[in-house]
Amino acid sequence: MRILHAASLAAALLTAGSALAHDYRAGSVEIDHPWSRATPPNANVGGGYLTLRNDGEEPDRLIGGSSPAAERVEIHTMEMEGDVMRMRQLPDGVEIPAGGTAELAPGGMHLMLIGLAAPLVEGERVPLTLEFEKAGSVEVELAIDAIGAGGAADAHSGH
Amino acid sequence: MRRARIVLLAGAAIAVLASAYAASLVVSRGPVAGSGGLVSSTGTAAIGGPFSMIDDRGERVTEADLTGKPSVIFFGFTYCPDVCPTTLFELTALMERLGSSADDVNFVMVSVDPERDTPEILHEYVKAFDQRFRGFTGTQEEVDRITEAYKVQVERVETEQSYTMNHTASVYLMDSDNRFFGTISYHEDQNAALAKLERLAGA
């Protein structure tokens, strides 16, 4: 498992090409810009966002993940029903259709980093292993953005 | 445990019915929501009321502590990855734009998850955004009382290993007599939200 991780990390580094590109590949799935927000002190959870593109002939599925920064990583979704924010776990993960895209973004599907070992700090990177049904596991890094990144009061909208 | 869950479910069901009723009374939504639609003539709207909770410094707090200043009240929980920190961050940005008049407004986050949100945890959480934020928590009964008074929907959702909370994401605006003044909806246009806060601060 450790060797597999090392191999996929090496592969990710090679395909990423540069740190600025910040994208990764697992099999036919491209993982674009995994990021999260800085968390307040004492916060036990953080989100994780990324875009998955599948240029293969078969659908794949993001089924889970893990990170040394958190006790566990789950896949959740959030939706607004009127004024009510509803969240639920997606135990079967997220499908990435053949030739299609799945987006985990604020206000919708997201990774939940639960049981944070320490607050997420803006500017830092957090290791994260993503598990795909077919493509296997790949190590990526979550880029930690500002605490309010991606919201209505966010001055920059580079996501 | 089973009994507690049934009580919670029953509470949630009551909250849902109550908020649906309240929404039919006072919450006007639609394509023009956010373009100034403050609710102005609902009489004594059935939103708000007496409560007794513990603030983030561990002290007892009631509705009387808010009287005399208008209040901005957000219901949330610290195990919330997206809506709650984003809302607090947006409120912080609005407080900066309000300038010194923000000092004359109560800014409160009320926990809907007292099981995990102790006063200490809430304290560090809200103060990370702005020192003027206060956090209220309490026993489950005390939280139930304030969420019922404010017609806030709260629903506990089990996950494989834990739970999360569904809740009303709107920010409640109350005037200096603790009467319902309006709401700011989730991701409302920030200029419209600022205009509401300016009206609230001057009310």
Radius of gyration of chain B: 16 Å
Spatial sequence of strands, sheet with the most strands of chain B: 2-1-5-4-3-8-9
Q: Count the helices of chain B. How many?
A: 5
Report the order of strands and helices of chain A. HEEEEEEEEEEE
Quaternary class:
heterodimer
* Overall shape of chain A: globular
Describe what you observe in this structure.
The complex is a heterodimer of chains A (159) and B (203). Chain A contains one helix and eleven strands. With 159 residues, chain A is mainly beta. The longest helix of chain A has 15 residues. Chain A is globular and about 45 Å long. In chain B, the strands form two sheets. Chain B has a seven-stranded mixed beta sheet with strand order 2-1-5-4-3-8-9. The termini of chain B are far apart. Chain B is of the alpha+beta class and 203 residues long. At the A-B interface, strand 3, strand 5, strand 6 and strand 9 of A face helix 2, helix 3 and strand 7 of B. Strand 6 of chain A pairs antiparallel with strand 7 of chain B.
Tags for this entry?
heterodimer, A: 159 residues, mainly beta, 1 helix, B: 203 residues, alpha+beta, seven-stranded mixed beta sheet, two-stranded antiparallel sheet, 5 helices
Helices and strands in order:
The complex is a heterodimer of chains A (159) and B (203).
Chain A (H helix, E strand, L loop, with lengths): L1 H15 L6 E4 L2 E9 L7 E10 L5 E7 L3 E12 L2 E6 L4 E3 L4 E4 L5 E7 L8 E8 L3 E10 L14
Parallel strand pairs in A: 2-11
Antiparallel strand pairs in A: 1-2, 2-3, 3-8, 3-9, 4-7, 4-10, 5-6, 5-9, 10-11
Chain B lengths: L1 H25 L25 E4 L4 E3 L8 E6 L6 H16 L7 E6 L7 H9 L5 E5 L2 H10 L4 E5 L4 E6 L2 E4 L5 E5 L5 H13 L1
Parallel strand pairs in B: 3-4, 4-5
Antiparallel strand pairs in B: 1-2, 1-5, 3-8, 6-7, 8-9
Helix pairs in contact in B: 2-5
